[in-house]
Amino acid sequence: MRNLEATDLPALTRILQATGAFTEVEIECAVELLEIVIAQPWQQDYRVAVAENDSQVAGYILYGPVPLTEGVYDIYWIATDPTVQGQGLGRRLMEQAEAEARRAGGRMICLETSSQGGYERTRRFYDQAGYVEEARLRDFYKPGDDRITYVKRFSCREEI
């Protein structure tokens, strides 16, 4: 795992497209956030961990503290190259974000996803990573497309 570099943008854009999970508008939003991290290294809202496989960019996670909360973090984006999915890379990215959140005093991580069928694999991934469905806003994105919020809480006794 390493920090984001400007030269990673083309590979990460390709990965976002290759997953087939995101619309063009979602990809534009994801890339915009990556550009913010690169252009504004002093900002504190977003953090990015980039994963490599055989010295090639293979995925990333974008996360950060939720403003006006005590110890709450959001995971905004996670994507891995489809050619390496199922090899534990996504799980390692999640563990990286979780460890960083705990080191900074985090007590929970939240993330949201769609109820659409195309996100079924994503929801299974979150379940297997120990996240629990906490809330569901019906018809949030559009009629028939709910927003599902997952949460993982850290106990105070967990090792940092």
UniProtKB/TrEMBL annotation:
The entry's keywords: Acyltransferase, Transferase
CDD domains linked: NAT_SF
GO terms, molecular function: acyltransferase activity, transferring groups other than amino-acyl groups
Ranges where the N-acetyltransferase domain occurs: 1-157
Classification via Gene3D superfamilies: 3.40.630.30
Domain of life: Bacteria
Protein name stated in the entry: GNAT family N-acetyltransferase
